[in-house]
Every structure is written in C-alpha cells, then in structure tokens.
Amino acid sequence: MIHYQLTKNDFFMLQKNFIENSVSEKRKSLLITIVLMLLTAFYGFALAITLLPETMSAAIILILAVGTAVVAPLLLFPFFKKVHFTIRLKLLRSIFRQESKWPRDLTLSIYENGIEVNSLHNAVNKQVRVSWKAIERVSEDETNYYLYIEATEAIIIPKRKLRETNQTTINHLLQKHLNITL
C-alpha cells in the first residue's frame, strides 16, 4: 500500500500531460494555429494594401502585400503554436483556484489482478478498482506516472512515493504489467 496526498499541483500536472499528449488536443492546437496564421496573413495583406502610398506602382504594392501576408504568419508561428496550450493551462489554473477539494488523501494498493485506489475527502470515501487490462496507456512526467483508464481519466502515482516505499512486490507488478521501471 502507498499512502499520499493528491494536491492541486498533481492534478494540474495530469491536465498538462493530457493537453500535451492527447490527439484531440493536438488537433485543436493545429486548427487554432492555422486559423491564427490565416487571419494574420489576411490582415497583413489588407494593412499593406491600405498603408502603402498610392504613388507606388500596383505591382510593387501587390508584391509587398503578398510578402507581408507570407512573412508575418511565419514570424509569429512559434507564438501561435503555443497559444492553445497556454490558454488551456491558464483556464485550468483559474478553475483550480476556486475549488476546495484539495488536497485529497489517497491510498493506492497494487495487486496481481489490478490496482485499487481509495480516496478520502470531507468524510466521503471513494473506492476505484481497475484491472491491468483496463489501463489504456501509461504516461509520465518528471514527478508522476499517469495510468489512463479512460481518455481523460487517470490514476496519478507520484514517483517519489514509489521510490520511498521500496516494496519489491509493487515494483515487480508495475514492471510486469505496465513496463514501469523504478
């Protein structure tokens, strides 16, 4: 058994990991990037046409407008690529500030047939049992392992707690079923 407290930061890191690795989030990010680049190209072209003096020849104005429409989105591409990720994380932070359900006491039990998580908060005990087969994928960052049981739901296991426990049975089961090496 592993006892630990799940904090806002742990849950925030799960959301960050999901946003970085989810196919649907990557698609949304790509769509937002393309839309922003197209808008920049359009407004760059329109501004160049509008702001360039009429004394210039039409061919030069058109070349400069097209150049602006191409160069401006390319220069802003690194910024546009991060817009979706940054906005999503800021929204999550603002939501987490308003919630009072953190920290949450968890007890994680790892068995031959699966994992059991007991969560206690405000005198409400929630118990979740998950078989090894039900774990769709495993992801990790520098502080946690994320065992996804659905596309957006995961069990968070702090790496520091796994190192502290030094329980060979738990380590063996995680390596055997999930290829997590400690």
* End-to-end C-alpha gap: 16 Å
Give the proportion of residues in helices. 55-70%
Give the strand order of the largest sheet, numbering strands 1, 2, ... along the chain.
1-2-3-4
User: What is the oligomer described by this structure?
Assistant: single chain
Report the count of strand segments: 7
Strand fraction equals: 15-25%
Question: What string, H for helix and E for strand, traces the elements in order?
Answer: EHHHEEEEEEHH
Specify the number of helices.
Answer: 5
The poorly predicted ranges are none
- Cα-based radius of gyration, to the nearest Å: 25 Å
| Average predicted confidence as pLDDT | 84
Report on this model:
- By secondary structure, the protein is an alpha+beta fold.
- The chain is built from five helices and seven strands.
- It has helices spanning 8-21, 23-51, 58-98, 159-165, 168-178, and strands spanning 2-6, 104-111, 114-121, 124-131, 137-140, 144-148, 154-158.
- Strands 1-2-3-4 form a four-stranded antiparallel beta sheet. It has a three-stranded antiparallel beta sheet with strand order 5-6-7.
- The longest helix has 41 residues, at 58-98.
- The radius of gyration is 25 Å and the shape is elongated.
- The two termini are 16 Å apart.
- The relative contact order is 0.15.
- The model has no long low-confidence stretch (mean pLDDT 84).
